[in-house]
Amino acid sequence: MNGGQIILRLGFATTVLAGAAFIMDGTCTFMTLFAFLVVVSRIYAPFDQCLMLIAELFSARTASARMRSFYEEPLATGDGAFEPVGHDVVFDDVSFSYGGAEQVLSHVSFTAREGEVTALVGPSGSGKSTCARLAARFWDASDGRVSVGGVDVSAVDHESLLRDFSVVFQDVLLFDDTVMGNIRLGRRDATDEEVLAAARAANCDDFVSRMPQGYDTMIGENGSKLSGGERQRISIARALLKDAPVVLLDEATASLDVENETAVQTALSRLLADRTVIVIAHRMRTVLSANKIVVLDEGRVVEQGSPDELLAADGLFARMVRLQRESADWML
């Protein structure tokens, strides 16, 4: 009920009360009041309906504006044939902004080489996750070029490009299906043995063994019956099962305790060999074994090199490592 309807109904109620008072003191008869109220109700009802329709029109206007914004988005097009030479991921002077607003990335250049682990680190909001999403062409760069194996990703159809990507982002997407069914989304034609092998590598066995039907247990909409760490391990298992040549890990171990994090990192180290791996992490211990580290700050690359080189340079990366080591020793 909107404000106009409330005012109308209060007015009508006031009229009824006033009429009742007139009957009590003999000013008018009940039939006179009844006839008066019939006439008033015939006037009041159309106004009440109009006010209801006005509220619905305002709501429809908001919804139609959102629908128009969807239709105004440019269609993503590209070549269905994707034949890269190797799987080096190259950012060449890339800039990006969301909807023409403030730039998130500014002239970013680096190469994530095949067979190596490249870690993106930096303060929150520095553009690390945006880089990973641009590599998988979730968006197109505003300026510059992102390429995989020498092929500009903006010229490749999304379906064709993503066949070569395994992705584990912070926001895990699961379905109201069994544990087995959710992991098998990584590769639909995988056998049960392959699914179970990926699950074991992602350290899923310990919590799945406690479920009523094991791997056949329904996990609820978006994994509502699981903890954050359990949901993330299923996502990691799905990525491992896909066995794609390019792997994007955005805070893949963020919801795991120290013991499970170590187990998953060991599995990742073993199973991601000879692939192009881009890792995003805030825990410096997670990336100290990477082949290359790219340090981002306010959307720009401020440092890049091996962990030893960056520690020796005593820049932003070295400062972040020191701060995390100091915080690890903090006690109440």
From TrEMBL:
A single Gene Ontology MF term assigned here is:
ATP binding
What PROSITE patterns does the record point to? ABC_TRANSPORTER_1, ABC_TRANSPORTER_2
Per the UniProt record, which residue ranges are transmembrane?
6-23
Q: Where in the cell is it found?
A: Cell membrane
The protein's matches in PANTHER family, at most eight in alphabetical order, are given as: ATP-BINDING CASSETTE SUB-FAMILY B, ATP-BINDING CASSETTE SUB-FAMILY B MEMBER 6
Major location (coarse) = membrane
Report how it sits in the membrane: Multi-pass membrane protein
Alphabetical list of InterPro entries matching this protein: AAA+_ATPase, ABC1_TM_sf, ABC_transporter-like_ATP-bd, ABC_transporter-like_CS, P-loop_NTPase, Type_1_exporter
Protein's UniProt keywords contain Transmembrane = yes
Q: What is this protein called?
A: ABC transporter ATP-binding protein
Record's keyword terms, sorted? ATP-binding, Membrane, Nucleotide-binding, Transmembrane, Transmembrane helix
SUPFAM superfamilies for this protein: ABC transporter transmembrane region, P-loop containing nucleoside triphosphate hydrolases
> Which segments of the protein form a coiled coil according to its record?
none
Positions of the ABC transporter domain: 89-323
